[in-house]
Here is the input.
Amino acid sequence: MVDSIISSRDVNIFYADKQAIFGVDMDILPNKVTAFIGPSGCGKSTFLRAINRMNDLIPICYMEGCMTIGGQDIYAPEVDVVALRAQVGMVFQKPNPFPKSIFENVAYGLRIHKMAAAKSEMDDRVEWSLKSAGLWDEVHDRLDQPGNSLSGGQQQRLCIARAIAIEPKVILMDEPCSALDPIATAVVEDLIDQLRREFTIIIVTHSMQQAARISQRTAFFHLGNLVEFNDTKTIFTNPVDERTQNYITGRIG
Ligand SMILES: Nc1ncnc2c1ncn2[C@@H]1O[C@H](COP(=O)(O)OP(=O)(O)O)[C@@H](O)[C@H]1O
Ligand SMILES: [Mg+2]
Here is the structure.
């Protein structure tokens, strides 16, 4: 697809001799929220982690096929994985702030990537990130307090602020609301909708309601196969594949 930012072609992923992903071709559009749905164990997280090479950290995991971002093969030998992960940030299921202050959680990546020379620039970027993550009003007067002193929902927004501080192109989110209560979930969902103006977002969710609420495109995985990928509305109202129909109507999964 010409307009896509991320493309996979015939991606197979294995854990030792067990295959977890089978021949996935996918084109992800920029500035949209793409949801990955499907029953537990169907390969959503495995495929998501292939997009910023997080599977490299699992010794028994290996991949075949091609994955490009902005036309660049991210598995090419010359690729700097640290730089890649700066372009493709990640937010995890459980909020995982560093054992540092709120300010330092956001400043950390900016220091590592040398993105703020002067203190005023650092302050501005931290403020911008916390504002973009919808957290500034709640924390601006306590930036020196530990990140883990915040509520769960605030911690997750802090992790989002940390991810966006270094201005990635893509943000991967693996069930980012599953440890949050419904109110904190609603706040993060609104935030995701705001963020797609500037970023491309891929979110794994076990909640079909969440996928329907916040995504424009939905990919349904089943047993390691990408069964169907289309506009979210089409997936939920007029799916083509019987497996998708069965999943969205609650017959499998
Ligand atoms: N670190 C791992 N080592 C071995 N097998 C794994 C590992 N992570 C996932 N798997 C297997 O790969 C398959 C896909 O898992 P996963 O991508 O986590 O699915 P999902 O996110 O859809 O629940 C499952 O069969 C799972 O057991
Ligand atoms: Mg998973």
Remarks:
- Residues 6-79+88-95+151-157+169-248 form a domain with the Rossmann fold fold (CATH 3.40.50.300).
- Residues 44-45, 204 surround magnesium ion (ligand 2) (CB under 6 Å).
